[in-house]
Known about the structure:
The protein has 199 residues and is α/β, with parallel strands linked by helices. The protein has a single domain (49-196), classed as Glutaredoxin. It contains six helices and seven strands. The chain has a seven-stranded mixed β-sheet with strand order 2-1-5-4-3-6-7, with helices on both faces. Strand 6 and strand 7 form a beta hairpin. It is globular, with a radius of gyration of 29 Å. The protein starts with a helix and ends with a helix.
Amino acid sequence: MTGKLRLLVLVAACLAAGYFTGRAFWQEPPPESPPPPARAAPLSLPDFQLTDLATGQPRRITDWRGRAVLLNFWATWCAPCRKEMPLLEQLHQERGTGGPVVIGIAIDREEPVRLFVGETGVSYPVLVGQEDAMAVAESFGPAFVGLPLTVVAAPGGEILAIHSGELHPEDLAGIVKVVDALAAGSMSLAQARAALKPH
């Protein structure tokens, strides 16, 4: 074997050794694992307990079982939340015990909530919490993308609709119409859900 041939063989051997050594130490990273599947929105209201602003005592959502409810998640720093609250107060005043119960759920500290409610005269029940109220909002899965969030439930706790964003008068009128039809028996649960499904 000539010196030139020997040199070529040596270079080839070094390249091969380097290649296989590199593969052993610097393997390609494993492919990224797929993201976890998005959690589906629940079909019924979760059982939860938060502080009632009026009494300072814990209150469970099941206290309103037997009545249609409109849960409205909000915060004092949320401008769209504040804008829609007069509509909710009007519904509460007009329908009293005969319509869906409006329940505000403040994802906020108790002091600013108490001050805001006192200034605005909101009279429907308000439950307050920070991490706990946020956990309840997050339990509604991908529908919770921010505040305000409104959840409409039938008297048995079955969720009829989840509305993300500010409620407008036509939204609220549509909700009340469906809740009334469900209460009158002229609409089934499936029909109510279909009627309130976003188009």
